[in-house]
Amino acid sequence: MDILYLIFIRPVEFVLGFLFDTFVGLTGSFGLSIVMLSLSVTVIMFPLFYIAEVWKKKEQAVEKRMKRRLTSIKKHYTGQKRYCLIKATHRLEGYTALNSLRTSFGLLIQIPFFFAAYHLLSHYEAFRGQGWLFIGDFSEPDRLISGINMLPLLMTAVNIVSSSIYMKGSRFREMVEMYVMAGVFLVLLYNSPSALVLYWTMNNVFSIGKSLIFLRLLPREKYVPDEDEKGLKDYLCSLKNTFRSCLTADMISFFTVVVFFGFQCRVLKFHKSSFVHLYLLTAALVFVCALIFLFIWLQRFRRKEEKFMPLIKIVAAGFVFVAVSAAGFCFQMQDAGGGLLKKLVFSATVCADFVLFLIIRYFLESRSLFRDFSGAVRQKECSSVFLWNILLLGFAVTTAWPLLVYLSAPEETGITLFTILQSNIPVLAAWLAFTLIFYRFSGKNGKVRLAETAVLLSILAVLYHYVLPCDYGELDKTMLNLGEKLDNEAFGIWLGDIAVIAVSCILARVCVRKYTSFTKNAALLLFCCMVGMTLFKVVGYCRNDAVSNPEKVTTARLPENNHIVNGYSKNGKNVVLFLSDMFTGGYFVDVLREHPEYEEALSGFTWYRNSLAPSYKTCGSMASIMAGEEFLPLELNKMPGSGREKLRKAAEIMVDRFKERDYSVSIIGGESAYLNLKEFDGVDYAYRYPYGQYWKQKYRSGEKDVRLIDQGHLFMMLTIFQNAPYFLKPIIYNEGCWFIFSRKALFWTVEDHVYPNYGFMQLLPEISNADAGGNTFKYIHNSLTHGPYGVNRHGEVIMPGEQPDENSEGFYFGKSPYYSTVTFVEFFIKWLDWLKEEGIYDNTYIILVSDHGTNRPELNPMTDSKLVNRLNSIMMIKPFDSEGELVTDENTLVISSDAPEFMKNALDGSPVEFAADRRLPVVRFASTNFLDAGIIEIIGAFEVSGNMFDPKNWKEIK
Amino acid sequence: MMENLLYLDPGTGSLLLYAIVGISTTILFALRGFWYSLRNRLFLGRKASVEKMPDIVFHSEGGKYWQVFQPVLRVFDSYGIKYGFVTPDKNDPVFSSGLKNVVPVCPGKEMVTLSYMNNIRAKVVVSTTPDLDVYMLKRSRHVEKYVHLFHAVVDIGIYELYAFDYYDILLCTGAFQKESIRSIEKNRREKPKELFDTGCTYFEYMLDEIRKLPQQRDEELTVLYSAAWGERSSVVRYGTAVIDALTSAGIRVIFRPHPQMYVSDREAIESALEKIKGNSLVEVDRNRTAAESMIRSHAMVSDISGVIFDYAFLFEKPMFLVNSEYFPGGCEVLDVDGERIWQFEKIPEISRVITDNEIPEVGKIVKSELEKADIYRERIQKIKNTEIYNFGSAGRTAAEQLKEILSRS
Question: Residue ranges of chain B with pLDDT lower than 50?
Answer without folding.
Answer: 1-14
